[in-house]
Amino acid sequence: MNKEMVVLEDINKKVYCCRRKDYDKIIKDFPELKTKLCELVTFYLSENYIGLWGQLMNNGVFENE
Q: What is the DSSP secondary-structure string of 1-65?
């Protein structure tokens, strides 16, 4: 289960919060929004360290050597 949240800002400086999968779907369906939205922060919600580590690894925070 993906518990990742994203905080966005639009060109009018309005701030929004949504689930990562919803943000990704919006950008996929409306690619022109890439120039109108700025991803500010990603929140990773995990119940334990291993879950958090997995989320960070999957998102490229740690390099897999």
A: ---EEEEEEETT--EEEEEHHHHHHHHHH-GGGGGTEEEEEEEE--SSHHHHHHHHHHTTSS---
CB atoms within 10 A of CB 59: 12
Range of the domain at 19: 4-58
4-33 pLDDT, tens digit per residue, is 899 999 999 999 999 999 999 999 999 999
Q: Is 30 a member of any domain?
A: yes
